[in-house]
Amino acid sequence: MQFLDAIHDGVSAGPVFNLRVSNHPDYEQRYVQSYDLSIRGSKKVLKMPIVVISNKYNISHNELTLAHFQNAKVPIVGEVTMGINGNVTDLYFSGGGPKMLRICFTGAEARQADGSKLIGVGVQPDIQVSPTREDIRNNVDAIKRAARQYVESLIQQYNP
After folding, report:
1. Residue 30, Cα to own-chain centre: how many angstroms?
2. pLDDT value at position 51?
3. Residue 43, pLDDT above cutoff 60
4. Where are the beta strands (DSSP E) in the chain?
5. Which segment of 44-48, 79-83, 110-114 scores lowest on mean pLDDT?
6. In which element (H, E) is residue 71 found?
7. How far apart are CA 149 and CA 143, in angstroms?
């Protein structure tokens, strides 16, 4: 996150991250420990337009990082992320060995800074671009091309 500190001169609200300390059948009665993931920038040192790139394979910590950039008003170009984040909780039954039963589930809750859902929804890019079959056949990185075109258009606005 040091890069984000260097380009942002205010406070960027971080995604909401709640870690379940204990579970309860009634979702509202579970006990959670909340973490403040806000970032406080020091000074803006980069004086040119930037974007960050996303794709459908971005998961977990990468999604939280993208959410930080989005909250700092850095445009995201690419695809909607997978919407899978949080830590993994494992439960083991019947001891060890081949008859052991293992159950895994996400033990944390991650949300956008505004409280909206992130799990199952993903980070929504500001400029949505997906590669076509033709792009893949021709080895063209459509997301990178779109990001470059967007940055070039922003540079033209600043330097007509």
Report:
1. 25
2. 92
3. yes
4. 11-12, 16-22, 31-36, 39-40, 52-54, 76-78, 88-93, 101-106, 108-111, 127-128
5. 44-48
6. helix 61-71
7. 10
Instruction: State mean pLDDT over 100-120.
Output: 78
Contact present, 110 and 119 (Cβ < 8 Å) = yes
Q: What is the mean pLDDT of the chain?
A: 80
Of 101, 106, 104, the residue nearest 87 (C-alpha): 106
Three-state secondary-structure class, residue 150: helix
Query: Which structural domain range is residue 141 located in?
Result: 2-158
Name which residue leads in pLDDT, 146 or 90. Answer: 146
Copy the structure tokens of residue 141: 């990185």
Which amino acid, residue 95? G
At 19, which CATH number? 3.90.226.10
CA separation, residue 26 to residues 31, 35, 38, 68, 125 (Å): 11, 22, 29, 31, 34
Is pTM beyond 0.85 here? no
Structural domain tally of the chain? 1
Question: What one-letter code names the amino acid at 92?
Answer: Y
| DSSP bridge pairs for 90 | 104
